[in-house]
Design goal:
The complex is a heterodimer of chains A (about 160) and B (about 475). Chain A contains four helices and five strands. Chain A is an alpha/beta fold. Chain A has a single domain, classed as HybD-like (Rossmann fold, 3-Layer(aba) Sandwich), CATH 3.40.50.1450. Classes of the chains: A alpha/beta (about 160), B alpha+beta (about 475).
């Protein structure tokens, strides 16, 4: 297998959730907008769920941002992430990004600096509409991502 | 005092189930059952929908094998239109179905079964998972993930997305394969072949270490059903149905999709939402049959591609001309990956794939149609009745995993009798029962056409029905 190149300048943004289950589409919707920015070194991936195949592109990136819906109210939240050290049974369904980071590290020896952005979500009924709260949160989530990217860019210029 | 031991949930399978093992007063296994506790109802809520929508709707039955439903559903739709789809469309559908087989079988072997096979059934449960596999065989783990990804990428190249691609439709397909996609797929084929061959080599080594499991994991006489080509070669999309017995004698041959009800009946049991298909001439439950990789190999004469045929010869030398041991589903799965890759390579060079003729247009010309295709787990049947406006009036879905239901139950009982001894139940014994089910690679989301998850539990009952113990994994 050809060794893929780790690019510390690159960022991967992964939004996950079902686009047919109301507010669960928040992550993919944010990432779809991020993809339209067409920034160099930025890879935006919208997926139904986190899967082991994402471990390789994660391991190649310098920074990862995960975007997901969160049951409940409140605002958009931003958390730093670390690879989990509880390596419970993993199958095709990876429940959380920390496990995926752990998988990336286990398989490829690298896991990027990572963040999790969660948007408040109320309704997960069948349908493609977002609730007003989640819809309003999309712009906030996008701003958070821009801030993280700018911060990363500043750090790389200083180093 | 007899006991019922229940394994709930069964881990590392797709979907949810529980297993009940009944012990008699002497602590010996008297019976065992594989319960499917999901209920879904696709057959009912599809009524009233236009048949055009059925590929997209039924693809949502499952996130692992949506392509299989796309194929069978689109073929049923082709029949309602009464069209022969353009040659390019059939070949493109075949390409996607082969990719589906590669990715699904890779998932089954590398993610779900390899931890047991490589690390051992008695190894520490905390390690007997993909992370344990990574620690023990990192190259194997990495290559397995990439092999699954390869299959998914072909699906994405064709259908625009890896899961639920809205691409195969009644009359043909929505889009062709670009030159750039063809090149991208071709570039990754060598690695995929290497992984498949390596996995087969690993399995042969594992097989020598698991002789006990090989003879006790669902090794019994049964019938086998699958599609075959007109020349008896391995089929996955077209062809007709064939049924053979455990000696290899052909009981049914050249059975077209529309005649499936002549040979397949469906029974129900009160303790499972999964139906029990059976071979009608032998009645229920004597008409037990198996489908899937093992059955496809048993009903076919050859793969028709050199590398897979070489491996098929060795597989049959090890397992018999008609292979009865369900443990060898794993081996069959790997050989099917290899054969599928060979066919993908040939299709990529087919000039028909450049054609722009991808759909046949027609209206409702038949009010009933059956589409049959081979899903990774076995033969999949979609049977639709429509009205003059093309609205569904009745649906019957016979899912691969459902057709293995009787055999899975028999397998659970066989393993339980061999490895389970009351009153102490060791982790390794319970895991062998689960692992026996995993040989079939069941997709329970499909087989009950269900949605959502349901809680599961382990229950231990006395012979008088009194609950003795409850455990949740």
């Amino acid at each position: 297998m050809a060794e893929k190149i780790h690019n510390p300048q690159s960022t991967i943004v992964i939004g996950y959730g079902s686009t047919l289950r109301g507010d669960d589409a928040a992550g993919p919707r944010v990432v779809a907008a991020v993809a339209r920015w067409e920034l160099p070194g930025l890879r935006a991936i919208a997926v139904h769920q986190l899967t082991p195949e994402l471990a390789e592109p994660l391991s190649q990136a310098g920074m990862a941002i995960f975007v997901d819906a969160r049951v409940g109210g409140g605002g958009v939240r931003l958390h730093p992430l670390r690879p989990t050290d509880r390596l419970s049974a993993l199958d095709v369904h990876i429940g959380d990004p920390a496990t995926l980071l752990a998988l990336a590290h286990a398989l490829y020896g690298r896991a990027p600096r990572a963040w999790l952005i969660t948007l408040p979500a109320h309704s997960f009924e069948l349908g493609t509409s977002l609730s007003p709260l989640t819809r309003r949160s999309l712009a906030v989530a996008r701003r958070r991502i821009r801030t993280l990217l700018k911060r990363k860019h500043r750090r790389s210029r200083l180093s | 005092m007899s006991q019922r031991v229940v394994i709930d949930p069964v881990t590392r399978i797709e979907g949810h189930a529980k297993i009940s093992i009944y012990l008699d007063d002497a602590g010996e296994v008297s019976d065992a059952r594989f319960h499917v506790t999901e209920f879904r109802g696709f057959e009912r809520f599809c009524e009233g929908r236009p048949f055009w929508e059925m590929p997209a709707i039924t693809a949502r039955i499952c996130g692992i094998c949506p392509v299989s439903h796309l194929m069978a559903s689109a073929k049923a739709g082709d029949g309602i239109l009464a069209v022969d789809i353009p040659p390019a469309a059939e070949k493109l559908r075949r390409l996607m179905n082969l990719a589906q087989i590669v990715q699904s079988h890779a998932l089954s072997f590398f993610h779900l079964s390899a931890p047991d096979l490589l690390l051992g059934f008695d190894s520490d449960p905390a390690q007997r998972n993909v992370f344990g596999l990574i620690a023990a065989a990192p190259d194997l783990a990495r290559s397995g993930i990439r092999l699954r990804q390869f299959g998914q990428e072909i699906i994405e190249h064709l259908g625009g997305r890896k899961i639920h691609p809205a691409w195969s439709v009644p009359g043909g397909v929505r889009a062709g394969l670009s030159d750039a996609s063809r090149t991208a797929i071709r570039e990754k084929l060598p690695e995929a072949f290497s992984t498949a061959r390596s996995a087969i080599g690993h399995f042969k080594t594992m097989l020598d270490k698991h002789r006990d499991e090989a003879v006790s994991f669902g090794s019994f006489d049964s019938l086998f059903l699958g599609l075959v080509g007109d020349d008896g070669s391995w089929e996955h999309y077209g062809g007709k149905m064939r049924v053979v017995d455990s000696t290899g004698a052909i009981l049914e041959d050249h059975v077209e999709a529309g005649r499936y009800q002549e040979i397949i009946g469906e029974a129900v049991e009160p303790w499972s939402y999964l139906k029990f298909p059976y071979y009608k001439p032998r009645g229920y439950p004597d008409g037990m049959y198996r489908v899937g990789p093992l059955a496809r190999i048993n009903v076919c004469r050859s793969f028709g591609s050199p590398q897979a045929d070489d491996e098929l010869i060795e597989l049959r030398q090890r397992g018999g001309s008609t292979i009865k041991a369900s443990f060898l589903y794993h081996y069959a799965r790997l050989v099917e990956i290899l054969g599928s890759l060979e066919r993908i390579a040939l299709l990529l060079d087919d000039p028909d794939l450049h054609s722009k003729r991808l759909r046949a247009d027609a209206g409702v010309n038949r009010l009933e149609s059956v589409g049959v295709s081979e899903a990774p787990r076995g033969t999949l049947i979609h049977h639709y009745h429509v009205d003059e406006d093309g609205l569904i009036t009745r649906v019957n879905l016979i899912i691969a995993t459902g057709q293995n239901n009787l055999a899975m139950n028999r397998t659970v009982a066989q393993i339980a009798r061999r490895f389970v001894r009351g009153p102490k139940i060791a982790e390794g014994m319970l895991n062998r029962v689960e692992a026996g089910i995993r040989c079939f690679d069941p997709c329970l989301s499909c087989s009950t056409h269900a949605m959502g998850q349901m809680p599961l539990e382990v229950s231990l009952f006395a012979s008088d029905g009194a609950l003795l113990d409850t455990v949740a994994r």
